[in-house]
Amino acid sequence: GVIPETAPFMVWRDKVMMDWDEEMREFLTDLDDTAEGGIVNSSSWLSPQPGGQHLRPAGNGRVLMLWEHLHRHIAVPQDPDMPIGNFLEMYPELCLRGLKEMVPGLECYIEELTKDTTIDGGYYSTTPDARPLVGPYGAKNAYVCGGMGTYGLMGSPAAGELLARHVLSEPLPSYGDACTWPRKTSARADEVVDLLDESAK
């Protein structure tokens, strides 16, 4: 009940320093296997973490929590497997510890994570320049609306309106061409922009 059903979608933008005790700090240092080519970069969790963790009510008393930064270092294969089985076991606790900076009342759930906690997920589809794809593409009268990666929930209303303007041949807003493919306006493909994470800047 800490997050009411009427709560909005909330995103924390500030850096977070998670409050591990000394025993846990030693454990996280020993757990790190990246030097051997593994994916558990737990020693990095001892440092300030970038923001971007977010949550929203998911109905029936459930809360959806995400912090995609935690998987940024994991390489995705050319043909990714679905469903993803490569989630870090500590993902729920890390999300909760990061989000309790925004909602301190969440701390009471840290000891309850084994009860009714579900990890689920997929891949964020993005373009090299992190701009969405919205407009005609491919066959006649075919359109695409996607590639919104980490900001799909926030960007979908505007993307839907933009797509409708394409379909109805109505005048496009000033940013309309920036979302078509091939791109009509240039952007540095090597400079990925993550709207929820300032750590990459």
TrEMBL record:
Q: Where is the FAD dependent oxidoreductase domain?
A: 50-165
| UniProt-listed InterPro entries | FAD-dep_OxRdtase, FAD/NAD-bd_sf
**Pfam families, A to Z:** DAO
List membrane-spanning regions. Answer: none
Q: What is this protein called?
A: FAD-dependent oxidoreductase domain-containing protein 1
What organism does the UniProt record list as the source? Cladocopium goreaui
